[in-house]
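Entry type: protein chain
Record version: 2
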Amino acid sequence: MSWNEVFLKDLDFKFAIEIIVRTLIMFTLILIILRLTGKKGIRQLSIFEVAIIIGFGSAAGDPMFTKDIAIVPSVIVLVTILLLYRGITWLACRSEKFESILEGDPQYVIEDGQFVLDNEDLTFAKDEFLAELRQQSIEHLGQVRIAVLETNGTVSFFYYADDEVKPGMPVLPKVYAQKSAIIKAEGEYACTYCGNVEHINAETHTCKRCHKHEWLKAIKTLRIT
């Protein structure tokens, strides 16, 4: 194996300078185009907008280091993508149905301190969602009245007042790891699949809501803000 082939190949000094110039030009164009889209930050990007960003990257990346690709055709691609984006967002602003098809709809994840079961479109991993709960200083599901997964990937939480907090499934890692199908002592337990809380006194028990049989001791601590 030749290290020269790996790191340099046919690169010469003149083309190295050209790569620097091409990169500066294309990167500046990307910043200008993205500014023209009107987006403020990555947390606001939808799936459609992520696709637009990928298109920008593909169009802008190759001219930075490929001799055979000129800058002007890439600029045409960038402008076309920008006009497409503007046109589609214009349609989305005037048609809720089109916006729903393009962006999707907000989805309820938690209602009344329990996971929503009848939403087949939810595809996130439970561990990922539990991490989101912890980042919002949520210790158990009984503190949450409603959680909505927004179309941009963020989660909106609506909490119970302190005097309305109910027993719920713990979400802290060390506690959640203690889930078991065996009930060791009588008390209130939360189903780890759906969050349903029941008073259980048997060694094994099937959840009345989702028919699973893995449980955690429910807790009723208040949320500290």
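Comment: The two ends are 59 Å apart (CA to CA).
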